[in-house]
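Fold description:
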Amino acid sequence: MLLGAAPTAAQAPVPSSFLPAGVTLGHALEAAWQRAVQARESEAQVRRARAEQTAASSLWAAPPAVELNHLNDRAHSNAGRRETEVGLVWPLWLPGQRDARAAAADAESKLADAATQAARLRVAGQVREAAWKLSAAQAEAASVATQARYLQGIADDVQRRVQAGDLARADALAARAELLEARSAQSDADQRVQAARAQWKTLTGLEAMPRLQPPLAASVSDMPTEEHPELRLAAQAVERARKRLDSVNLSRRDPPELSVKYREESPGFGEAAQRGIGIGLRIPFGTDSRNAPLQAAALGELDVAEATEQRLRERQDADLALARSALQSAAQQLDGTRDRAGLRRERAQLVDTSFKAGETSLPELLRAANAAAQADAALARQQAALGLAHAQLQQALGLLP
């Protein structure tokens, strides 16, 4: 520490607002998910998938219909001739069509579940980034506040020595100027903390923050990349596209319609009505004008889904390698920054002792103090950078908090 002053940023206690109040990153993720637009989109997709499953489990290929027909000669001869026909029409499944549509609906349901998990992972990435951004801002603000308190002590000491005639008034002015600059830096740091806190609250709706501890080592347990939610989503999109193509291939014509009709006919006034019941079957033809666009759309969807999955796997491998490299680099930089901060802190203590003994000038003391303060601030930022790199590797592996 500098000259027996308050702890530096690397050693200072975490502000009370940053202490866990029963809040973990997992809690923050749940809070952010409840506020996220992605959650509403996921719920809507799940509802659509359930509706598709319900439709596929129906006994009929489409909703039944009622037919009503009535004919009379009132506007012409008015001889009392009339015909009335009432019928029920049931669209029928083609062979294999119902099973294919049920398989497509199940694939849609699994896709909705995979999309939900992928969306949660994306929100988790936002939560992690916001948490570590606030952590870095608070650590740097604590370092700047420590430096401001130290310079306040220096300014007071110099003022006393000026009044005692041991130092010139120019030294008091220099110490005062350094103090004002430190306070200005402290104000800027506090403003960055407020901005980061506002972003955190907007994202999660929480005032409290979880305690974030930088990792002890530059590693994290690996897991198979196939388990990554984004990869599961892409694979399920391919499966859904295949099932849709199967459904299209088994639905080369509109569903046939079975009809049962009751007909009553009266030849004229005073004549007995004739009644009858009939059964009909309507079988539409499947032509290229109907099937070709549907098949082209299904094949196009499958092709796009397969290409998307392949590119995503390649990008996932690259992102994972980059995240591992970034974590190793952040750990190495932290070691160097910690050593540099320790050396500059020790030098500042020696210069302070020499200044109090009258062997070192005030400008030399201020330069040493500023160098130590900058090193402490850099150490605080690098500790947060290591934590963020660790979180980004977890994100690349598809791990939720």
